[in-house]
Amino acid sequence: xxxxxxxxxxxxxxxxxxxxxxxxxxxxxxxxxxxxxxxxxxxxxxxxxxxxxxxxxxxxxxxxxxxxxxxxxxxxxxxxxxxxxxxxxxxxxxxx
Length: 96
Known about the structure:
Oligomer: single chain
Number of strands: 0
Low-confidence stretches: none
Shape: elongated
Order of helices and strands: HHH
């Protein structure tokens, strides 16, 4: 197999993985929306700092087990959690 063929195979595999990642993120955020509805129904504050730190630490550790830099995982989860917080805030404030 020549270089161009191998590169194309890698790209196809990356594309499939991107689909899985996107699907998983969509599922995660849908669950976060359910959490937002639950928090709203029970008067629970949207921001839970201890939970946020626990998630980031757990994901950094999981990432490290797969050879990923903990800093990368923390930055990635900063973005994911920020999006989840935005969705929860919209629900709690009746914007969604």
